[in-house]
Amino acid sequence: MGLLPVVGESLQYSRPSGRFLPAAFILDRIKRYGPLFKSHIFGGPTIISTDAKMNQLILQKEGNLFKSSYPRLILSIIGMHNTTEIHGDTHKVVRNVILNAVSRIRDEKVISYISDEIVHRMNAWNGQIVRFQEEATRLSFNLVINQLMGLSNVDDANEVEYLLENIQMLVDGLSCVPLNLPGMTYRRCIQVVKEALRLVNPGDIVFREAIQDVNVDGYVIPRGWRVMPSFSPAHTDPTIYKDPLSFNP
């Protein structure tokens, strides 16, 4: 459980891991104890779950068996009244205020980026024959990955073509008949979205607290204990997904 009661195993948990991979700490504990185990991180005892069914139960039973409860260390950084700790109408008001503020800032940054990118590409076209449609597509593509994903421009032709094919599936899915059947455009679009979320989950962990003793398959999660579902281990499990680190919608 670690040498210091407050620190516990927090330092081990914080060690970096490979791209798309769960934390090395979690993978090591899964090998030792299985998909549901006890630790002491972020200043308190914590049940860590990497089991898909258990995680689903924790998320579905929020308000009945569990409540949102982030460690004090995290709250001291992001604020005691951040959007993860407020609920109902108050949460809606705060969320709208944040979205409106962020939208104005992003608009200014997007306009500046587009202007700089156009100048850069026009300089690169000097003395060349330009296929305008291809260049316009590339410009739009780089705008998306830069502003929405925070990635640098992608110039490798094969990589661009592969990414554009998957993006085109999403675009086609917006105007297709919404039939979730094999071979249909809508189904392929959904598969692209799910595969993206599987590999790059924007919320890989969440924190909940048991509001009563919770019995799960003979194991008891005591009232007041923090529970931390971790989703990436199941998403990168080779027994579930063939070649789990590849993007294959």
TrEMBL record:
It is found in: Membrane. One of its GO terms (biological process) is sterol metabolic process. InterPro entries: Cyt_P450 (IPR001128), Cyt_P450_B (IPR002397), Cyt_P450_sf (IPR036396). This is Cytochrome P450. The keyword Oxidoreductase applies. It is a single-pass membrane protein. It holds the Pfam family p450. Keywords: Iron, Membrane, Metal-binding, Oxidoreductase, Transmembrane, Transmembrane helix. It comes from Ceratopteris richardii. PANTHER family: CYTOCHROME P450 26, STEROID (22S)-HYDROXYLASE. The lineage of its organism: Eukaryota, Viridiplantae, Streptophyta, Embryophyta, Tracheophyta. Belongs to the cytochrome P450 family. Transmembrane segments: none annotated. One of its GO terms (molecular function) is monooxygenase activity. SUPFAM superfamilies: Cytochrome P450 (SSF48264).
